[in-house]
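The following record pairs a protein chain with its ligand, zinc ion.
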Amino acid sequence: MRRTAHTTLLAACILLTATVSAATQSTRADGLGLLGIAWSDPTPFLHGLIAAEQTPSAARIAAGASLYQVRMTIAGGLSRTSIEMEIAFTNLEDEPLDEAVLRVFPPIVGGAVAISDSRVDGHPVDAVLDPVDGRLTLPLPASLLPRARAVLRLVAQIEVPPAPAEHYGILEYTSDAVSLAHVLPTLAVHDAQGWHADRPPAYGDVTHADAAFFVVEVVAPAGIRLIASGVETAQEIGAEIQTRSFAVGPAREFYVTATADLEVMTEVVGEVTINSFAPSSLSGSAAQALTTAVAAVQIYSSLYGPYPYRELDIVASPIRAGGMEFPGLVLIGLAEYGKPPDPSEEPVDFFELAVAHEVGHQWFYNVVGNDQLGEPWLDESLTQFATWRYFEARYGDVGDLGFASWTSGRLIVLPTPAPAIGMPVSSYSQSTYGATIYALGPRFLKQLEQLLGREALDDALRAYATDYRWGLGTTAAIRGSLETACQCDLTLPFAQWVYAN
Ligand SMILES: [Zn+2]
């Protein structure tokens, strides 16, 4: 989600059921990973999950979901981060794999990376890093058979940029804070087409990942606050250094920020603790963010299934965007805090919209994943439609019409005929991307509501969110959910709105 000086643009903002075969084994006889935690042990993740999510999550681990154990050290005046990591990777395809491909984001989002050690099952391998596309290829010494597991080990040094032009500063350090978005090398998605590791454009989002499990031990200077995806599972605080462990999963990725001078206010809703972090001078906006997030979690949970984690963090951040989503944590642009709403400029309060939107991504991006480069409408347009439902649920017709009016204000930049909403990020210019995906996309869903009826549309989105919970949604999948719900053929509306000619 993004706002510019001229207009408000929003621009960035399987179930696995088989049992593990006998071929599955770790490099260490005891089956322990880098942090001394057994790969098969779901316990670190259960603390952070609501009760209903715990048994299915343990089953995903047993079925071979990827597991990450990471030691991350933040140093160099916050400008350098070193990473030592192991990934337990199970081949869930039907064919042997000769290589594993990871996406390495720092060069894409303005930083740099050097890999100093790479091993598979303890044996050194020649990793090939393509820093332009952010692609790291590890040869698998013996073809990895279906259901077999390999442990991938990497040591990497990350240079964090001070003020990058790319991606809104989500990977950035300042004198007293560092935002470490997309800092871990992450397994690319593999399917019948092979590995998906395309280079993302400099705008839009970069994530396309299977749901995985992360335990990350963060070593940082003492006295700075660490806020991360998931829940804190251990801590050791020294005079100079603090070490804190975080666990999150299922999740698409792991995010952490280290920052000084943020206060926290907290509210508990059901099993979920929601934290709003902001400078103490902006406590009014921090309270508004908390109220919005509490309402949003309740509204989206009733529409699309429960929020999966016990914690959700809303963090004020100097990013140059309205907001940005990560698993269990969202950033909201600091520039949006402390601004009184201006109805003459915005029919709905943009700060509230930003918080409601980023919270909505917990369902469309994280719980239901998708290719954010290839089919960005699946996360952004659906999240915007959820946000529309939020405004309607909270403010009735005023909220409904206000959000409609907000989308109208963005559509004026689009040519006639308007672009299709179902194209890759790279098919749009930055301005047509924002207007098409964030304004036209939710209007397509509103159009479907008139065509199908409100109940059928809500049933379809709930079925999509349930059937693809922790899987990867596609345009074909959501069309299938819609056609099942309405018992109708949507060839025409999809041809008119979604597919590129
Ligand atoms: Zn978004």
